[in-house]
Prior knowledge:
Helix content is about 50%, strand content about 15%. It is an alpha/beta fold. The chain has a single domain, classed as TIM Barrel. Helix 5 (about 110-130) links the parallel strand 2 and strand 3.
Amino acid sequence: MLEAISKSVFHALAGSAAITRLASRYGMAGERAFARRFIAGERIEDAIAAARAIEGRGLTHTLDYLGESVTSAEAAAAAADEYAGIIERVTAAGIGRNVSLKLTQLGLDLGNEIAAGNLRRILEPAARHEFFVRIDMENSPYTDRTLDIFERMWRDGFRNAGVVLQSALHRSERDLQRMLALGARVRLVKGAYKEPADIAWQRKSEVDAAYVRMMDLLLREGQYPALATHDPEIIRLARERVAQLGIQRTGFEFQMLYGIRRDLQAALAAEGYGVRVYIPFGREWFPYFMRRLGERPANVGFALRQLVG
Ligand code: FDA
């Protein structure tokens, strides 16, 4: 219940223009930059520096150029250009080649064709440079369209892309079957959005139970599964299951967000598990930041202490 309320409050705040302005002024610059714990910075150089540090600790990463809910075709095309530039910069930097993106950033609100066209403009250079492109999953109005566009790319022969499924949604267990039938790579998450009760589990215990059911199937039948969670109990169960199934520690990966449970990231990597850190960067960091606060209201205290401390 509390989780549902805090998600709604932070989603509402994320839509406030005044708060967005305030945050852009103080969130990322200077010593008191309260968003810096969760966001690598506003520029690609910041992301590359963060990625190098993460590689230095024996972890891998995926870079996310922040942006979503784009409302003009020009802005959507500009985001695709930006990603093409990131692919060049990352290749030149010689760091790991893996990016994450959102289809509303590529114009999904303007129609499937625009988003699919922009995605293709990213997947082509990504394939040439051997990048993996993860298509993040947004809130439920986009689930079908995201999976459909992904499937279209898959049919067109792009094998360098994968999807995300959210255990919070009732439909996801069926979607997992669909993705397993394709042979597609899946990142499993709990789901960061507030969703209605007729389509989504509302209690943490239900979301967690669905996660464990999906994780089990994904580990047994999936292609290089990505288990994205910071939940210690689920991670314990995953380790147990992997050992029972005889899966190598490098045959799947744990994924966690930049700045969250760095201790656990390092401990798992030290034990030989694959651990990928999701590194967000860019000027449009506010909605992402608010979702992180919504997941864990204690982070508000952390952000305020940075600001006034
Ligand atoms: P849960 O929220 O139950 O938290 C378990 C524990 O983890 C907490 O007790 C705390 O210790 C720690 N923790 C979790 N969140 C924290 C935070 N914000 N700050 C500090 N500690 C925290 N969602 C989505 O809808 N679409 C997507 O594409 C993605 N992509 C994605 C990629 C990666 C790599 C990760 C790790 C997560 C996502 N998510 C996502 C977000 C995901 O759906 C979910 O909201 C968060 O991971 C939080 O859920 P946990 O599984 O960590 O469990």
